Every structure is written in structure tokens, then in C-alpha cells.
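Why does residue order matter? Because the sequence determines the fold. Keep that principle in mind as you read this record.
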Amino acid sequence: MPVDSQLQTSGGVTQTLVAALDQIHSAITARMVGPDGKPSGTAIYMHLPVGYPIDPTMYSYPWTPAGGATSAAVTSDGRFAPAAPAAPAAPEATTPAAALAAAPAQPDPQFQHALQSAAFTSNLVDEMLMVTRNGIASAWPNRKVSAAYKTALVGMQAEDVPPPSPEVQARIDAAKKTLFTFDAEGNMTGYSRKYEIYNKNRKLYEDAVSEFANAFAGATMNPAEGQVWPVTSAKYKGAVDRARADLYAMGGQEVEDAIATTQSVGSSAAAFFIAQARTMFDAYQLGLAGSVAVGVPYSYIDPVSWWDRENQDFGATKISVDSSTTHATAADHAQSFGRSFYDNSSSSTSGRAGFGIGSFGASANASHSESSAVSGTHTDSSSWSSFRDETANASVEFEWFMATIRRPWLLGDLFHMDGWHVVGKPKGCISDGTVEGQIPPAGEDKLLPMIPKGFVVVRNVTISADDWGAAGDAFEKAVADSRSDTSSSSTSFGGSVGYLGLGGSVQHSESESHGVFESGGSSDHGWTFHREGRRGMLEIRGAQIVGWVGEITPLAPKTEARQTGTAAGNGSAAEPAPAPAATPAAPQPAAGPQPPAAPTT
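Structure:
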């Protein structure tokens, strides 16, 4: 059945949810513009067939290189929370027996949680997205952004830089003679006398500046010294002035000019960026895996409290859609994102009971398994029943925002510059810079065709409608069962529900259900349902990732790898030069015996 006919016959909830998808997509694509204000063309938004629920116990208060595990001590407005009252001091151990009975040191649970959250967060955003034609997000099976980026770094090689002109080289040689001494063969042997005097005077000047600052700090802390500081400061200021005068009176300016000349020598910008990128990547391979001796590429998410469904300080957007307004516009937006997503999802999902497009599902009990130690592998042990959407007069309200992924180990400037190639690989082996060129099977041989830049979070969903029918009965039964089950969680009724009521436990193809695209249950993103007469309300608590934004990597590398052993570094032999065209030769006198030809390389 065509998508238009499906939407016309579907229930009110499905129609309002499709309209809500249009609003999200319109707001996101409005941001995907270039410097000229026109659509970017390389930024892609892809919606998830099944929402990924966010478990705060996995992602809250992650460790950071600068703040360690201190984030939990900061309130939502950025201020430090009041310090907890100090515990009474334990009595001192006065005897050897008492010392042996003292309690051993215990692990810091806050620090352990911070490391775990940092590891889960880094793994969550390391999944490599696949470019698709239908706007549905998919993940490459077992491919990581960090691994592909590392592979590209290993193969990068900068092109040769031509030597400086004779005039520039002469200036460089003169500057080096001012700074260093050389032996008869031209080898550097040490600093020149002038450079040694400069280093000594430079240190005396810096010491005088430090003494001035320390004396001022002491005067601010001592009222008596502070009273006379305007007068006594002249002593320290005079020391600074004399040290600076000595620095430049003894050839300081000449030495600094020589240093500037030697540092202004042009070198390969590509070689510098490649070396810097490798250093940054290695530096951010952190020990977040606990007792496992493996580095985790550290990444973080902005806003840092993205996992907190109750935080209103960073500006989440609220959307409210009523089914009465969707009928009037249903025929005018046949190519809208929501309708396209509805059509693609309907054709790609297979119904293992659960929240499918145009249907509702409810679990028969409240039991659910805890999330495992691997990001994105939630499971839900509830059994599901599926019901067709026959609701009317539906309304949907929720909050959403865009979360940005920060990868301090990834130096994207490399992909925008010339002067390098990947050893043994053709031009564009990382990416050809186009959307069409990244869609499988064309993009299967690319190292890093697209980098995920952010994701869309939807939270606190409320769906109200009339005539829930058998679906409402199942919801109410699941809630009642959960309340009678002493082992159920107090914040999760009946297992989990898919984002916006779409998705849930619907099965998809292997690539779409891999890694970050799996759905599941946890302790803080459950749902509850209550009904009064014909009107029923479904509340889906917590936050869920519903879509990803990726940026197509520009054409990289822009240069073909030269097939020579010296240039490409791959040991391949140089191709022989073509022989010159034959020309008639003048008669030559007979020659005597010739020496053997020199061996060729």
C-alpha cells in the first residue's frame, strides 16, 4: 500500500508522530548550511528505526582529563554543590592490635563510575555510520571511527618540499653562525659566546619579573606591606628595568633576529599536521578500560549533561503536535521526511511483536535485565504483544535537542589540505567527498567516508489519544503486573517502549540492529500508562537517541601515491623512463675498447 494510503488509514498517534518527525528534521536541516547560507550538501541526518534509550547509570558524570571525577560535585547551574558535613574522626589506633583491626582502604565508587561513564561515552560515539539512501540510520558492522582514522594516519606521507632559494639559504647560514659554533667540517659544536650571554641575561630578566609578581602577591596578603607597596615596588621595578636593559645592550636584539630567521624556514605543512595528528591520537588513548590494558580513544559530548532528562539549563526544544492539524496538511507534503521515513521503515522492519510503524505493543510483565558492561547491548526479557493503531484525536508532546560529539584526538584539518598521500593507495581512498560515492557498495572501500558529528535526543514523551482499544488494555495490564511484582523497578513499568511510540522491539536487518542502533530496557527509561474513559495517556520517561548527524569527509587524499620506492615508501620499483625517439646519427670514428657500464639502480 502506498505511504499516502497508509497514513490516511492509520491511527491518530501514527499521524502525529510522523508530523513530529517532520518538525525535527526541518529544524536540523535548517542548521546544515554553509558559509554562504546555502544547504551544506555534505551534512546528513539519518533517523533511527528503533530509538536507543539512554541509561544515566552508564553515561552520567564521566571522567574528563581536566576535571577528573569532579563533575558530580557541580549542580545543574554550574555551581559547586554544598560540601557534605565531615564525618567524625575515628579514634587513633594506640595499640598494634587496634592498628591491625583498622578497616582497609576502599575503592572510590565516584571515581570508578566516572571512568566507566567516560568509557561508555567514548564507545557510544565511536560507531561508524553508513550512508544510506532512505534516511534510516545504519551502522557498519564492526567498524570504528578511531580504527579507520588510525589506519589513515599510519599510511599518510607528506610530499617533498623544494629547498629554499640561494638568497634565503644565505640568510639562514648567517643566522646560524650568530647562534652556534661549527667545526672545520661544518658540524655544529655548541652555542656561540653571544648566544650564551643572551641566555644568561634572559634568565636574569625573567627572574626579576617573577620576583616583582611574588612581592606584589605578598603585599596583598600582608596589610602592613600593602600599605607601603606603592613605594617599595620601585625596588622590584628597577630590577626588572635593569635586567631588560642588560639583555638588549649585550646583543639581545641581534640574537633574537637570528632565532627568528632560523625559525622562519618553510617546511612541509602536511608533514607538520601529520606528525601533530599522530601525537594527538596517541595522547588521547587513555586507560578508561579499567584493568584491561588497552587504550580507549577519549571523546565527550556537548552538552555534558545530555543524559539528564530533567536538566532544562541548556535549552531543549519542546514540540507539541495534534492530530487535528495533520489531516489538513497530509496531502501537501508527500515528500516530507516523516512520510518518507514512515514508508522506508514500514518496508524494512519485520514484526517480532512490539512497537512497529502503525502499531502498538505492550510487555506482559515488568521484568527486564540490567544493561551489560558493553555500550549498546541492552536486552529486554519482557514478552510483547502487538496491536494496530486505531486511536483518534491524538496529541504528542516531547523535548528534543542536538548533542555534539567532541573528539580531541581527531585532527580533521588534514582532510582539507594538499601535500600528502596514503602509501600504496589511490586518490580519494579515504573519501571521495560526495554523498553518492559513500553509499554502499560504492563506499565500501573507503576508509572514513563519514564522521558522526552529533545525535538527536528526545526525552519526556507524552502521547494522549482516544480509543486505545486492546492496546490500552495491554498497557494497563503491564502496569498492574509491574506494581504487583516485588522484583520490578519502581521507575520502569512493563519493560521498555520505543522512542515516540515507534520502534520498541521491532527487528531490523543486521546492520541496522548493530551497536548503537540496538534498543533495550534499563531502570530509568520505562513508561507508564493510565486511562480515564476513552482518553488514555502514555508517558515514556527518560531520554533516547532518535537520529544521527554525520559529515561527509572531503576528498582525501587529493594526491595519488607515486609508484616509486623513494616517494611512496612502499618499496615498488620505479618505472623506466620512455626511450627517446631515434634520430639519424652522424658517422663516428671507430672507438677502442670501452669500460664496462656502471650498474644501474
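The chain is about 35% helix and 20% strand.
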